[in-house]
Amino acid sequence: MNGDNKLMGYEEYLDKVKQMIDDLKAMTADLGLANTGDEYKIISELFTYKFLNDKLLYNFEHREDIEDSFDDFIDFADSNTARIKEEYLLLNLFQKQNDKKFHKTFDKALEAISELNKDVYSIETSTGTKKPLFEPLSVYLRDPDKEVELAKRAINILCKYQFGGEIFEQGWDYFSSIFEYLIKDYNKDSGKYAEYYTPAFAGAIMADILYNDTPVDQVEIYDPAAGSGTLLLSMATKVGAKNCTIYSQDRSQKSTQFLRINLILNNLAQSLEYVIEGNTMTNPMHLNGDKLKQFDFIVSNPPFTVDFSADVETMKSDKYGRFFAGIPNVPKDKKKMPIYLMFLQHILMSLKNDGKAAIVVPAGFLTATNRSSKIAYAIRKEIIDNNWLKGVISMPSNIFATTGTSVALIFIDKSRLEDAEVILMDASKLGEKISLEDGQRTILSNYDTKKIIDTFKDGKAIEDFSVIVNNSDIEQNSYSFSAGQYFDVKMMYEELTANEFDEAIANHLNVLEEMFLSGVKLQKEIIKQVKRIEHNAND
């Protein structure tokens, strides 16, 4: 059970994890828990326990002092290694599974691990409550007769798969793909708060451009809608785990659970005390005294639409003065409330004077007029008037698992020189469209990703792809952030003889004449039908 120590490629790792999840789902389905919140909690706990166990064993095998016993190693393990007593390791529990009260043994192990690691691994909610790492598995079952079966089948599934080697050495985001795979049965409603899945290539683009190859030290990275941490992990990997501290807030219990394990497995456990479960819009928890804490880097993919009508009055009296552009009126369909506009304002107010941010927004934000969305327009105006916009990338449609909404990446840099140039990019035609169970998805290749990053960082204008503008250009164009509105209009010229010109004009006239005749016929038919409706109504 010490692992095969073989270096495991990322794709092989993903396949094994998904197989394990499928086995766990089959187990919970047999126990009558299919597609329930309790099923999710059981699987996520077992998943977490499995990886903490395997990483601990891997670290022990690669300890600096080979003479250290297991107990000695546990006593002095750092925060990135879970402390698990030998009796609570998977292999030892596996050997006890024939005990009549094995379910109690398993529950005791989970509770003991939570207690031993509570100072580091507990997650704080916005109310100040500390959530333990694990709950006893038996609390999720209504039938006591199934408790032993659950514990025995679970331990056998977890022991069936072994993880080690490269996955504990690399700065990978363990859960971006896995999180989507795990929650797909529990998150049927597209666009749920905090459960957008951010593809790895989007995180890589945002991190690479923000970092811009400039070494940093002791920086603070923040995401106010962190989800499972894809963007935070991308940024931390780019700047180096030892060079940064992670701050996050998210009201999703599912997301926060996986962000926790993501940080632990990526040697960022020192940031766990700054992971908060709660509503950022009504109760931001990262503060400096009575003011918002400000950060060096902010990366975020906030939810685009969600009903926050119950929070509007609280936001109107926001004591931090975050919502300078306003708060949306409550529409008839409350689920369409554009909550991302509130996150955008929060992010701009949470960024240091020399800070940088990358935010995912719906493409409509780039061109919304003062009439169609006063708040979107006011935010764009604020960004330009303060010289904060570094660039914008319009991305291909269907890059997200949970929504087909077209999106853009906005890059903010508060340290920009006065009236520095801005790059606007239209990358919407890049990528390969593939068909999946939940619909069509667009995937960017490594070549596509490199083209976007290199073009942006080099500030290069490429015909029909990128354009270089300044704040004055944007102001004169109604503060539009869309690259397409700045591309040169191309006039096509073709040399024709006099006869060819006359023939082309005659053809165009014939087409126009036919269109006009069709229009007259259609007009008469519409009038005829309206009169018929009027006649029938008067009968």
Description:
With 539 residues, the chain is of the alpha/beta class. The protein is globular. The strands form three sheets. The protein has an eleven-stranded mixed sheet. 41% of the residues lie in helices and 14% in strands.
Count the DSSP helices: 17
Give the amount of beta strand, in percent.
5-15%
**Strand order in space, largest sheet:** 2-1-5-4-3-8-9-11-10-12-15
The secondary-structure class comes to: alpha/beta
Distance between the termini: 86 Å
How many E-type strands? Answer: 15
Helix content: 40-55%
Average pLDDT confidence is 86
C-alpha Rg (nearest Å): 28 Å
Task: Label the overall shape.
Answer: globular
- Runs in which pLDDT lies below 50 for 5 or more consecutive residues are 1-7, 187-196
Report the major sheet. 11 strands, mixed
Summarize the structure.
This protein is α/β, with parallel strands linked by helices and 539 residues long.
Any key phrases for this structure?
539 residues, alpha/beta, eleven-stranded mixed sheet, two-stranded antiparallel sheet, 17 helices, 41% helix, globular, disordered N terminus
Give the SSE layout.
Blueprint: H1 10-30, H2 37-61, H3 70-75, H4 90-94, H5 102-116, H6 118-121, E1 123-125, E2 130-131, H7 147-160, H8 176-183, H9 200-211, E3 219-223, H10 230-239, E4 244-250, H11 253-265, E5 275-277, E6 287-288, E7 291-292, E8 295-300, H12 312-316, H13 340-349, E9 351-362, H14 374-385, E10 389-394, E11 407-413, E12 422-426, E13 432-436, E14 439-443, H15 446-458, E15 466-469, H16 471-476, H17 498-538
Parallel strand pairs: 1-5, 3-4, 3-8, 4-5, 8-9, 10-12
Antiparallel strand pairs: 1-2, 6-7, 9-11, 10-11, 12-15, 13-14
